[in-house]
Specification:
Order of helices and strands: HHHHH
Number of helices: 5
Number of strands: 0
Largest sheet: none
Protein name: TetR family transcriptional regulator
Low-confidence stretches: none
Organism: Roseospira goensis
Distance between the termini: 47 Å
Length: about 90
Amino acid sequence: MTTPIGTTAETALRQAMERLLAGRPTLTDGRLTVTNLAREAGLSRASAYRAAAIVQAFRDHIRQRAARNMTPAARQDRIAALEAERAALQR
């Protein structure tokens, strides 16, 4: 069983997540990774991963942002490429 993190660490992770998602990192290059989330919070990656709900929320925000940023034309292009790849694999 994993030991849960304390409230201070949880608060640090939530604040770090807000900074990274807002594009205002203070300790990292700003890439949206769990490693940078932990660094921004001043924690180890292991400690960050013990806060599974926060890490999952961070990943969900990243996925939602990526989906919003994809234009309809780019989405259609991606679908067409995947359909062509699937057809080639079925041959």
